[in-house]
Amino acid sequence: MKSFTRYISGTVAAVVAIVCLSAAARSQQKVLQLSQAASVTQTVGLTDITVSYHRPGVKGREIWGKLEAYDKVWRAGANEATTVSFSDDVIIAGQELKAGTYSFFVTPRRGDWTVIFNSQPKQWGAYNYDSTKDVLKFSVKPEVIPNEEWLSYSFSELTISSVKLVLRWEKIALPITIEVGTDAKITNANNAAVTAAWQQLNNYARYCLDSKTNWDKGMEAVERSIAINETAGNLRTKAELLAQSGKAKEAIAVAENAIKVGKSANPKFSPAALEKLIDDWKKK
User: Fold this and answer.
1) Under a CB-based contact definition with an 8 Å cutoff, are residues 58 and 78 in contact?
2) Closest C-alpha to 242, from 265, 268, 216, 266
3) Mean pLDDT, to the nearest integer, of 203-207?
4) Is residue 119 included in any domain, yes or no?
5) Are 43 and 123 within one domain?
6) Is residue 112 part of a domain?
């Protein structure tokens, strides 16, 4: 009897396990969507732009003014609202749009269409569209093109600092110019690298100064720091290294130059610490 009970319990557990596995498998199956999912990504300079959308077909239907009514906000695709993601801040229609993911809507019109970037990216269609969450809205003149059966997004006229994002469906194309400010980003990155380089070299020189070791390497590092970007800070380091090696006269001259450089860079620069060092060196 006990064996039979164990057999029944084991059988029930096995059946339950199979049912659970079958349910899990079903939950992982993709659901067929007639307007199929798509995405397209383009790197422009240092910026990544990605469009995620679903592709409805024309299927012999009259699209503009019929299937998609004029003067009504449209999801610019099918199913979920189309989204556009930017890895960096961009400029569109002369306005800054911060890095992030946005829902993308369009209002078809008989004249210029309205393009909308909305801060609520996860929503179904435009049924819950909330205009108070619009972060960018502008007008675009549509272009007439050969028939495009399945709605698509693509990138064209790519340069190192700009690109056109183009929505195409039926016989309409809607081009949107996106600027990414690559020149400014490269300049900022270069400036940051230069700043990091001279500061790191100066920090090493000060380590040599404070530890009273590797004087030659410290002097070499501070000279390289000054060559990259002469500042009151690295000039002071050089002056102190010179004083440490007994070259007080040279140290004073460099420290006096540090005061001039500091005042030139910042009218509020305080020379008190350098002046005290100069006085101390003059007494030796």
Assistant:
1) no
2) 216
3) 94
4) yes
5) yes
6) yes
